[in-house]
Amino acid sequence: MTADLGTTNLLLGIMAAVSVLEALVIIGAGVAGFMVYKKMMVLTGQVMTLAQGIEARQVAPAMMRVNAILDDVKGVTATVKQETERVDNAIHSTIDRIDDTADRVRSNVRAKTSSIAAFVRGARAVVEGMLHRSEVRT
User: Fold this and answer.
1) Distance of CA 2 to CAs 6, 9, 125, Å?
2) How far apart are CA 57 and CA 63, in angstroms?
3) CA distance 52 to 121
4) For residue 129, what are the CA distances in angstroms to 18, 25, 122, 135?
5) Which of 83, 89, 109, 134 has its CA 20 to 30 A from that of 98?
6) Distance CA 132, CA 138 (A)
7) CB under 8 Å, gap of 24 or more: what pairs does 43-47 form?
8) What string of pLDDT tens digits covers the 138 residues of the chain?
9) Sign of torsion, CA 53 54 58 62?
């Protein structure tokens, strides 16, 4: 058995060439990936610059208007709250005055009617007493 190394060497040469080709493809893929990465970073920078420009031209003025509107709403809300508290206090004081007036009227009417009621009760007692005496005499 003679060893024929020619076939083995041929196969090893083919495998070495394929390995070199694989290494070149991997290196090429790495370089292509790096180039894609660089272009994407440049594109991302341009998009960010464009977004900042849009923000400066459109979003910032809109936000200033929204903040001004919110400040106006805050002022109106504070004014409405103050006026509501003032009206609430006025209503409570008016109700208190009405209650006091009703109590005074009630006590004045009682005072005046109690003397009249007492007089009527007394007169009734006198009349009943006289009628009762006249019934007893007969």
Assistant:
1) 12, 15, 162
2) 11
3) 97
4) 145, 138, 10, 10
5) 83
6) 10
7) none
8) 456 788 888 889 999 999 999 999 999 999 999 999 999 999 999 999 988 888 888 878 888 899 999 999 999 999 999 999 999 999 999 999 999 998 898 888 888 788 888 888 888 888 888 887 766 665
9) negative
